[in-house]
Amino acid sequence: MDIVLDGVSKIVNGEKHINNITLKIESDTTNVVLGHTLAGKTSLLRLMAGLDRPTTGQIVMEGKDVTGLSVRKRSVAMVYQQFVNYPSMSVYNNIASPLKMSGLSASDIDQKVRKVAAMLHIDNLLDRLPAELSGGQQQRTAIARALVKDSELLLLDEPLVNLDYKLREELQVELQDIFKERNAIVVYTTTEPSEALMLGGNIVVLDEGRVLQTGATPYVYHHPATTRVAQVFSDPPINYLPGVVHGRVARLGQGIDIPMEGHLESVPDGKYIFGVRPNHLFLTNGSGNKAEIRTKVALAEINGSETFIHVSHGDTHLVVQEDGIHPRHIGSDLAVYVNPCNFFVYNETGHLLASPFQCE
Amino acid sequence: MNKWENNRAWLLTIPVLIIVAFSAIIPLMTVVNYSVQDIFGPGQRIFVGTEMFRSVLHDYRLRDALWRQFLFSGLVLLIEMPLGVLIALAMPKKGWSVSLALVVLALPLLIPWNTIGTIWMIFTRPDIGLFGATINNVLGIPFDHTASPIDAWITLMLMEVWHWTPLVALLAYAGLRAIPDVYYQAAKIDGASPWATFRYIQLPKMRGVLTIALLLRFMDSFLIYAEPFVLTGGGPGNSTTFLSIYLVKLAVGQFDLGTAAAFSLIYFLIVEVLCFLFYQALQNVGKGANP
Prior knowledge:
A: alpha+beta; CATH 2.40.50.140; 6-stranded antiparallel sheet; 21 strands; B: mainly alpha; MetI-like fold
C-alpha cells in the first residue's frame, strides 16, 4: 500500500496549518517527518490518519481516494506524545482493545497480545493499571496497543519526547528493529535531527506547513537543499557566514580567507552564504584546518558529554561543538579552526550550490 | 539529634489549635456533656449516664426518621448523579454558549436555601402556584403537598434535584473538559462506540470529581433541613420529618436537650462512617480489573 497526498491543505480559523503538500509515501517504508514545533507535523499525521479532513486536495491510498473516509474504516494505528491508555483497563486489556472489534477468537487475541507485550518488554506488567506504571512503561503499552493490530499505516507523533534521555535511547533502538519487521508504512515525527538519522529511512522536512525537502534521510542530511532545511536538520543549529568569492579565494566574515578547492572549485565568483555544522568547527589546528576564525566566547552550554560553545565573530554568532566538558570564561578570546572541505555553499536566495559530502 | 531542639516550632500550631478548639472541639464536648445529663432548666440538671442514648435508640420516631432519611438520600443520589453526568455530556464544548450554560446551571446554587423552600412552596400551591395550579386545574390531577405524603415527597425530590443537580453537572463538566483530545482520537482509531468511549475514557477520567460530587451530595442531602422545614415543616403528619427536622423538634420544640444531644452524636457518627465507607468503596472502583 502506498499513500499519495495531492495538493493537500488544512486551514483552521484562517491559519494554514498545512499548506499545499504533495507527497508520495511508498509501501513498507519508514518515514521520518522532521520539523520544529508548530511546523505542522501533528496536523499532517491527523490528515493521514483520517482524523481530520483536508480543506483542499485529496489523499489517495493504493489508488483509492480516501479523502473523506472515516478513521474507523481505515487501517491505522497511532501513538501520541502523551501516554494515552484506557485508565480503568489493565495493560493486557489495553493492548487487546484494538482487537476486540476485529472478531478474532479469544485465543488468537491472547497470543497476539502476549507476543507484542514480549516484544516491548512489558509482559511482566500485564495485570497492572496504566496509573501503576512508569512513564516509559505507559508509552510501551501505548506502542504495543498500536502495534498489535497489524495496521497498514502506523503513525507515531513524537512518541519519545516525554521520556527521559536513557529511556528514549533504549526505545529508539528497539523501535528501529520493530519497524523493519513490519509490513506497514511507518510515519514518525520528531523535532530532533539525531533521532531522524538514527531511524534512517526516508525523511520529509516540514516547515510552516510546507514540505521543504524529501529523500533518503542520510542524503538529505548531506545535501540540505536550502538554508532552512539545513537549520531544521542540525542541532545545535548550523552556522552561517556570509562570504565573497573572488579569484579562487573566498573571504568570509572578518578577514577569513579560504581557498576554493575540492567541492568548492565549481562555485563561480560572487556573494554566497557559507554553512558549516557545529561539529565541524574545531578548537585545535589539525591537518586540513586551513582557516582560523577569531572569536570571543559568549556562552558555554554543557549538554551530556559535549560542550556547545556559543561564540561571536564580529556580528556573526557561531556554535562550536566540543567533546568533553570544559569550562570557558565568557568574553575570553578563542581561536576556532575549520577545514574548508566542510563548507556548504548557498546562493543568496538560500539554495544549495555545493555540498561537502564528497570530501568526507 | 536532640528531639527538643526545635521545640519552639510547636508554638506555630497554637493559632490552629485555638481555632479548632473553638469551632469544633468545645462545641462537640458541650454536646457530649449535654448528652449525659437530663436538663430541666437553668441550673437544674441531673447526671443520667447513658440513659439518653438508650432512650434515643429505642425511639421508634427516630428510627422512622432515619429510614426516611436513607430513602431520601438514596433516591436523590440515584437521580442526581446520572442526571448531572448526562447534563455535563450534553453541554456545549466551546463558544459563547458555554458561558451561558454555566451561568444558567449555577443559578439554583446561588439562591439561599430557605428562599428555595419558599419558592417551591409557592410554585406548588394548588391555588396560585404555577406548577400546582397547572397540575390541578389544567390537567385535572389532584396534587397537594400539604395534604398527601406522596405529593410532599415528589415536591421535595423535585426541589432537591432542581437545586443540586447543577453541582454534579458542573463538577462532571470540569472533569470532562480536563480529558485531552488525544484520548478521543485514540478511541476513534480503535473504532470504539460512543458508549465504549464513555465507559472506558470519560467515566474513569471523571472518577475523581464524581467521588467528590457523591460525597458532597450524600452529606448535604443527609443533613437537609431548611428546605423541607420551609416547604412542609416535616408534614403532612411525620411523612417528611427527616433527621435534622426531628432533632430540632426535640431540642427546640420539646426542650429535650439531653436526648437531642445524644441523638446529635449518633447522627454525627452515622454521617462520618457512611462517608468513610463511600470514600473507601470509590477508591477501589475500577481497580483490580484482571485480564
